[in-house]
Amino acid sequence: MAGKAKARTIIVRLISTAQTGFFYTTQRPRQGPKLAAVKYDPKVKARVLFVESKKTKK
After folding, report:
1. What does the pLDDT read at residue 6?
2. Which phi and psi angles does 46 have, rounded to 5°?
3. For the chain, where are the E strands, in sequence order?
4. pLDDT for the residue numbered 50
5. Between the CA of residue 1 and those of 18, 22, 45, what are the distances in Å?
6. I need a surface site. Which of 1, 36, 44, 54 has the fewest CB within 10 A?
7. Domain count, the chain
8. Residue 15 domain flag
9. In DSSP terms, which residues pair with 13 in a beta bridge?
10. In terms of DSSP bridges, do strands 9-16 and 36-41 run parallel, antiparallel, or are they unpaired?
11. Which domain holds residue 50?
């Protein structure tokens, strides 16, 4: 019997580089490159760089 197939996409957390603790969650392809995006951080009221980290369980 074959094992369960892995999903083609994974859920990742984009964490603010402004060290405010603010984050977005998004999906990306499992085989794709790591995500980095400039998005709005409401805690500093500015657009800052967000970098990917693995989504952790609560």
Report:
1. 87
2. -155, 165
3. 9-16, 23-29, 36-41, 46-54
4. 96
5. 48, 43, 53
6. 1
7. 1
8. yes
9. 25, 53
10. unpaired
11. 9-54
Q: What is the CATH number of the domain that holds 38?
A: 2.20.28.120
The share of the chain scoring above pLDDT 70, in percent, equals 91
Amino acid at 52: E
**In this structure, are residues 14 and 24 in contact, taking their beta carbons and an 8 Å threshold?**
yes
Q: 19-43: per-residue pLDDT in tens?
A: 999 999 999 998 889 999 999 999 9
Report pLDDT for 52.
94
Q: What pLDDT score was predicted for residue 57?
A: 65
Residue 1 in any domain: the answer is: no
Identify the residue whose tokens are 């500093």. 44
Tokens representing residue 21 in the block: 């603790």
Amino acid at 1: M
3 lies in some domain: no
